[in-house]
Write a structure and sequence with these properties.
Elements lengths: L1 H15 L2 E3 L5 E3 L5 E7 L8 E5 L8 E11 L5 E5 L2 E4 L5 E9 L3 E8 L7 H4 L2 E9 H4 L7 H7 L8 E3 L2
Parallel strand pairs: 3-11
Antiparallel strand pairs: 1-2, 3-10, 4-9, 5-6, 5-10, 7-8, 8-9
Length: 167
Amino acid sequence: MKKIITLLAIVGLFSLQSCTVTDSGSIVSDIPTSEIFEVSTSFTSTNGYSKLIPLNPRIYSSDVVLVYRLSGTTSQGGDIWKLLPETHYFTDGTLDFGYDFDYTTTDISVYMVGNNLQTVSTNYRLNQVLRIVITPAGFSQAIDKNNINAVMSALKVDKSQIQKIQM
């Protein structure tokens, strides 16, 4: 009997380790939630074809960061989002240009790569809309990351909850 009680106590400790009890007695989870941000930017020689996006709150080391670029619309008017990194090639298969990103715990840097970015069409450089999804690593493993609609659905986030970042 003592072994069963000890086992139940250990299981109870593990199951409550990521929760906090407030003064009112309710339980609040300490597990970070997913967030989605949207920012518009242009990539020019003036900004080095990159955009540094500060974030608050901080990104946890266990988080997964996904960045999408609005690449167009469907014939029905729906948005087409592409997951970064995104690469465009010349017809001979060599790199024309692309988009990539990196991040720290406090910001995300989205940038263009390529041999001659000044020659890239303004359709790909100016007024670009980016969506940044930050989610705990364990949760994001089960999501089809290439499909932003599947990501938002799995996270139970609708468009009204996307946080717009004005830069």
